[in-house]
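#random but structural
TW: two for the price of one
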Amino acid sequence: LFSVDRRNRNDELLINQFIRLSGSDPHTYLLNLLRMIVDCYWGVVLNCAFHPEAHAQNCMANGYGR
């Protein structure tokens, strides 16, 4: 979200593009984004009894068994 657009490096940061496209207040947009992340995290912790360590070096998409 906080990187440059790979398709056009002259564009503003991706998060800024998403905020502009949503047409919402930047403060509200970021609060909703943070709320969603925290809700998802606590949903996993409380419902699955699993404490994910979502550091960048530990995140991996696993498509096995699908």
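TW: number two ↓
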Amino acid sequence: FDALKHQYPDIVGYQLEDSQVKLAAGWLIDRAGLKGESVGKASIHLKQALVIVNKGGCTGKDVCDLARLVIDRICREFGVKLEVEPRIIGATGQKELADA
């Protein structure tokens, strides 16, 4: 976090009890310029970086592919691997993003 804070003084992070820092994914997504990014009919909201919108006819695959794109871009640009927090439920039950 200290190295990122040095490079990006306005980065948002929250101190955890175990001396780790939880980074604000919305800040990372916004800073990476991903608002409005689309895959198929799924898109990152233009005003709220943590919201994926359905532009009409969006599939679960579109949402998962967009999530993977965001995770990959954040990892490349900041060296941070985002974790998927929402649960992904498919026709056969809960899935991991890699399997969705």
